[in-house]
Protein: Phosphotransferase enzyme family protein
Organism: Micromonospora echinospora
Amino acid sequence: MQASAAQRATRAAISIASSLGLTAYDAVVLHDSNRLTLRLLPCDVLARVAPAAHQCAQLEVDIVQRLFEVGSPVAALKTPGVFVRGDHVVTLWTYYEPVPDQAIPPADYARALERLHAGMRELDLPTPHFTDRVSEAQALVADHDRTPKLADADRLFLAGALDRLRRAVGDSGRPEQVLHGEPHPGNLLSTRSGLLFVDFETCCRGPVEFDLAHAPDEVGDHYPGVDHRLLRDCRTLVLAMITTWRWDRDDQFPDGHRLGIDWLSELRKTAAR
């Protein structure tokens, strides 16, 4: 977020926490991109703040509550509910002290994701299809006003890659279920309570290979029943999608433009193989 927006978001989170009886008069920024993640002090609660136009918070809360009830490896809500202050939507979560300097073994990562998927198969909540997210990327590529720095040749290449990979994954015939959507290492916490997944706003329906595509390559070797050809297609599709997001003029991902250039080059190398 821009500095002024981040200040307003922080004030909104502190105000909401205080209104709920939590002692909060300071905040440490843990992550700042299109959404702000704060550690509120001294109550030691994690707050996630997004623009009020962001409409996925309630779905995330509903999903996490149900997964927590069935023992899935998810970070717990501190206070159930979605809270609105002015232009911001705030959710409050348990803060987990991270286990320092501990790499997550791929087999443990795969077991945690398998447990998560087992819990998600029990969900009956309506979720978008993964192709809806691909459509959003395709619309962004087609919109010159929103991606003004994307060169014509790169725009054509990205559009073709997204279309081809969407069809390849969508027509795979593999079973589909509710997925996390982005279970990458940044959304998996190593805590004293074990491995816990966070950030469920990107939940969607699709084959498990789409989720595995966000994890380190070695994780797929330990997940049972994987279609490795489909997993390769999903990895390339995910790369095409995250590359597209970095060219959005409103993207605030740290060092996003450089990543967009690097990932576009990597995508071209992948397509040439």
The mean pLDDT is 93.
